[in-house]
């Protein structure tokens, strides 16, 4: 379970979210500018509230405090970076250009011997649909291929918490659907709590996720995708000329 109590100002934008993610897979849904990426960055520890000011960030995973910083109070140290075991896949793959695909995926596995590392890298690339990319230099990858490699790099160390920010934006519908199906099976098999930000309701509906609906930095609704996104589902069906029955 991931528990959040966040109150953060970024310029004129104000994010206020207090909730718990209890499902295996939670989708943060909302229009551009609703705070999806800001929320993920706070959870990942990439956006850290200042020691002074009004920001508040309390985040706990399975009752283990990751961060606790009330506005105006000193920061209570959380786990060291190596202990957080959170993987974050953003819209920009952020691959290391001087490393091969294999070396990028293996980057978070320094403790494994070479043969074990190779097996883990191959397995992660297979889930991401990038098995044929293993020997390629990163500079030759398309946008969709780079996203696959970035996802494989995140999966390889088997994190406790997987954060995804529009991870399939460079993939077409069929490729995205296949990847989502394999990833869902991996998440279930490895008991990895996953939080994905998207503005595509079809992703949330396809996996039957728990959904947090954000509007202007506030929690507008939370619950099963079939309930929270019922209106979005009807619009999708109408667009395809089908029926909701």
Describe this entry's structure for a reader.
There is one protein chain. The chain is α/β, with parallel strands linked by helices and 245 residues long. Helix content is 35%, strand content 26%. It contains nine helices and ten strands. The chain has helices at 36-44, 81-84, 101-105, 114-127, 143-155, 173-190, 201-207, 225-228, 230-240, and strands at residues 2-10, 13-21, 25-29, 56-61, 64-69, 86-89, 161-165, 193-198, 210-215, 218-224. The protein has a six-stranded mixed β-sheet with strand order 6-7-8-3-9-10, sandwiched between helices. The chain has a four-stranded antiparallel β-sheet with strand order 2-1-4-5, with helices on one face. A hairpin with a 2-residue loop joins β4 (56-61) and β5. α4 (114-127) crosses α5 (143-155). The longest helix is centred in the C-terminal third of the chain and has 18 residues, at 173-190. The radius of gyration is 19 Å and the shape is globular. The protein starts with a strand and ends in a 5-residue tail after the last helix.
């Amino acid at each position: 379970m991931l528990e959040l109590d966040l109150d953060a100002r970024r310029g004129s934008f104000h994010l206020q979210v207090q909730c718990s993610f209890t499902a295996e897979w939670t989708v943060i849904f909302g229009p551009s500018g609703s705070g999806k990426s800001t929320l993920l960055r706070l959870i990942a520890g990439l956006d850290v509230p200042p020691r002074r000011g009004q920001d508040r960030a309390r985040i706990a995973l399975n009752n283990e405090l990751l961060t606790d910083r009330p506005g105006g109070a000193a920061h209570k140290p959380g786990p060291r970076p190596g202990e957080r075991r959170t993987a974050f896949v953003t819209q920009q793959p952020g691959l290391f250009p001087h490393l091969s695909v294999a070396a990028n995926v293996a980057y978070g596995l320094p403790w494994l011997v070479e043969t074990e590392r190779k097996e883990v890298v191959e397995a992660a690339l297979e889930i991401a649909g990038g098995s044929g990319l293993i020997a390629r230099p990163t500079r030759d990858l398309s946008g969709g291929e780079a996203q696959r490699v970035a996802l494989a790099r995140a999966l390889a160390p088997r994190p406790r918490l997987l954060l995804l920010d529009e991870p399939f934006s460079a993939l077409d519908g069929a490729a995205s659907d296949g990847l989502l199906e394999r990833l869902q099976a991996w998440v279930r098999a490895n008991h990895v709590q996953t939080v994905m930000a998207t503005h595509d309701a079809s992703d949330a509906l396809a996996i039957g996720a728990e959904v947090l609906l954000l509007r202007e930095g506030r929690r507008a609704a939370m619950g099963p995708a079939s309930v929270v996104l019922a209106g979005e589902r009807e619009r999708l069906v109408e667009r395809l000329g089908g029926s909701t029955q």
